[in-house]
Design brief:
The chain is built from eleven helices and no strands. By secondary structure, it is mostly helical. It has one domain. The chain is elongated, with a radius of gyration of 19 Å.
Length: 263
């Protein structure tokens, strides 16, 4: 077989390893989807009446707010999966599994690709659960088939970018505890963007940060695709952020993984 086909086979093997670990510990996947669902229910049913009325949408109230907040919750779901990815990679590093893989005649990249693809599947499943709950409590997108495909592609793109970043953070961590803390700010970024309230309602300094951080253009693009709100240049910015984060994460992760282990 060629080197490329060997790498594909090795990556598939590593993917099966990570999927079996997901099946062995289903509570992790349920937790990753459960926390965003709880936050969704909290904001819709506790704060949704007031926040929805402040959006200025026809009808206002919880119905308007569940439409507004769902894209932000989907981003939070991706960030939660990313945290689990960093922990999983750090566990492999600290328990010596990566060191054993280094001695085997397998493609080095396949070890990381297995983590990435496994986490991507976990992210898609978690987002599916969150979206299902959102639909049950009143989320009513008006997207056509093409817009749904574009929204799905954007979600996969941002998940892939953040997962590569998480893999790098896991490799750079000295312990599992460190790996669990490093991606934590990503979980809170939707709060400091347009995920829960419009950026226009924020103080000037916070508004500037909210408008220029990576999650805001992704959220605004999702809203535009699913709900028909104006997108403007958010789509271009979202793709640019995803490409940049993915490139940094991939190059950083491969450099860390190729580095010889310290004595």
């Amino acid at each position: 077989m060629t080197a490329l086909s060997d790498a594909v086979v090795d990556s598939a093997t590593m993917l099966r390893r990570n999927l079996r670990r997901m099946l062995r510990y289903p509570s992790m996947t349920l937790l990753l989807a459960g926390i965003p669902v709880v936050i969704l229910l909290l904001f819709v049913y506790v704060f949704g009446g007031t926040l929805g009325a402040g959006l200025g949408a026809p009808g206002g109230g919880r119905g308007a707010y569940v439409d507004y907040v769902t894209p932000g919750i989907l981003m939070m779901t991706v960030a939660a999966v990313v945290q689990g990815t960093a922990i999983s990679v750090a566990m492999d590093m600290t328990r010596g599994i990566i060191a054993r893989f280094r001695t085997m005649a397998i493609s080095r990249a396949s070890v990381l690709i297995g983590h990435v693809l496994g986490s991507l599947i976990q992210a898609v499943l978690s987002m599916g659960v969150v979206l299902g709950v959102a639909l049950l409590i009143g989320f009513r997108p008006n997207a056509d088939a093409v817009e749904w495909v574009a929204a799905t592609g954007l979600l996969v793109m941002v998940a892939l970018a953040l997962i590569w970043l998480a893999v790098a953070l896991g490799l750079a961590s000295e312990s599992v505890e460190t790996a669990s803390n490093l991606p934590q700010p990503l979980v809170f970024l939707p709060f400091f963007g347009s995920g829960f309230v419009p950026t226009e309602s924020m103080p000037t300094g916070l508004r500037w940060f909210a408008e220029y951080q990576p999650f805001t253009p992704v959220i605004e693009t999702l809203r535009g695709l699913l709900l028909g709100t104006p997108i403007g240049n958010s789509a271009i910015l979202a793709v640019a952020w995803c490409a940049g984060i993915a490139l940094v994460g991939f190059v950083w992760a491969m450099a860390l993984f190729s580095r010889e282990p310290r004595a």
